[in-house]
Design brief:
Length: 108
């Protein structure tokens, strides 16, 4: 790999890194929104079940079971946010490695 190829690879990774903050912001907002939606619905379901006279020991499990789809969406949003964050770290490591190779090639 010559210096030109390494420099092109560095530019490519740097370009990909430019979009990371925006993607992280989008994913964080979606996660927070899904969390809020789930918690509001859970609160409402718990209050409804309590008003219906369901035994207190069952309310939590029944409410969470009823809202399983919202919890799934919340968990998926959280996973996507964490995945985007890890991708950012991988790109930073790749860039660092390419920069090290570039320096070593340049010194040779």
């Amino acid at each position: 790999m010559d210096l030109f190829d390494i420099a092109a690879a560095i530019r490519n990774v740097a370009t990909r890194l430019d979009g990371v903050p925006r993607e992280l912001h989008v994913q964080a907002k979606e996660y927070a929104s899904a969390e809020r939606e789930y918690r509001i619905a859970l609160r409402q379901e718990i209050l409804k079940l309590r008003a219906e006279g369901l035994p207190a020991t069952l309310i939590s499990d029944v409410a969470r079971g009823t809202l399983a789809e919202l919890k799934f969406k919340r968990d998926l949003a959280e996973s996507l946010f964490k995945s985007a964050s890890e991708s950012s770290k991988a790109l930073q490591a790749e860039l660092s490695g390419l920069q090290s190779i570039y320096r070593r090639q340049d010194e040779a």
